[in-house]
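Below is a filled-in request sheet from our internal design queue. Each sheet records the structural input a requester submitted and the sequence that came back. We keep these sheets so that new team members can see what a complete request looks like end to end.

REQUESTER: design group, bay 2
PRIORITY: normal
MODE: inverse folding
CHAIN LENGTH: 119
BACKBONE (tokenized):
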């Protein structure tokens, strides 16, 4: 059976499940000595991301949070900042879903982008 992939906005009601996905990836996979207290945006998703041009989403595979992505849109500029883009490989591996598929349905790439990416 093909897994169900759903992209939904995440609110403060989802902050614990989002933090439970993000923190182990930061701390264990990337060895970053960071805590939840160091990331006020994870404690208040709505206050940090729910502004004009911004939001915070989750990718659910069979109703389990598999990934997150946040978009911040600073005031008076014509670009956005992607934050908290994480995919839990153990949630998607072997289920017919790859991390690149988690974002494809809602983040189409135009043939000629009108923005620049800064890394």
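RETURNED SEQUENCE:
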């Amino acid at each position: 059976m093909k897994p169900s992939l759903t992209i939904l906005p995440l609110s403060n009601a989802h902050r614990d499940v989002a933090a439970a996905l993000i923190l182990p990836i930061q701390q264990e996979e990337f060895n970053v000595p960071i805590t939840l207290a160091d990331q006020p945006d994870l404690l208040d998703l709505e206050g940090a991301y729910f502004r004009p041009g911004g939001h915070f989403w989750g990718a659910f595979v069979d109703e389990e949070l598999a990934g997150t992505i946040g978009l911040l849109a600073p005031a008076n500029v014509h670009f956005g900042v992607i934050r908290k883009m994480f995919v839990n490989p153990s949630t998607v591996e072997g289920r017919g879903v790859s991390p690149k598929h988690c974002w494809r349905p809602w983040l189409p790439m135009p043939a000629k982008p009108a923005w620049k990416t800064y890394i």
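SHEET NOTES:
- The chain has one domain: 5-103.
- The longest strand covers residues 64-72.
FILED BY: M.R.
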